[in-house]
Request: fold
Amino acid sequence: MASVLVEDRVGIDPSGNEYVAEYGDVPQHEDGSKYPFALIGPTTPGTVFSDSLTELVEGIIDGYEEADDDDDALWMRVNHLATLAWQAQASTLLHEGNREDSPVRFFDEDTITAIFADKLDILDFDEWAVQYPLFLLTTSYAPYTQAPRPKGEWIVWLDPYTERTYLEALAHLGYCEVVVLED
Reply:
């Protein structure tokens, strides 16, 4: 079944506050059944209601519905999330760098290199001790690869491995919110 886009922001109050939409607000199938998932957020054109997480991802990643297999779908999620992670990294750096008291001004070359690295690259360090967010993809490190996963409380781990974790990562970045509508 296809997802439904509602552009009047059903499921979000007028001030943009988060809440779980009640079924009275949710579009229904012809048989009266409800859509179990909704995607809302500042970068979506409205609220998307769907029957599956796959349908939500199809609405975000161009061509996702044409993925040949699970590996192809994973690669599409990884690439899309890597792009968004890099944009978030750049936005954070720009915001932080404009402050007069910003620690960014004192970062050494290794720190700057890690921050500006392609998010598909595997960074070779044991610990991120810098008190500054570093966005990394879980799929670049163990247990998904042989590369050891670095430690550090300032690492923002984004996981594209499943559709659910991919959507959770998008929500963490502020791209959208996924709501599971319950009976």
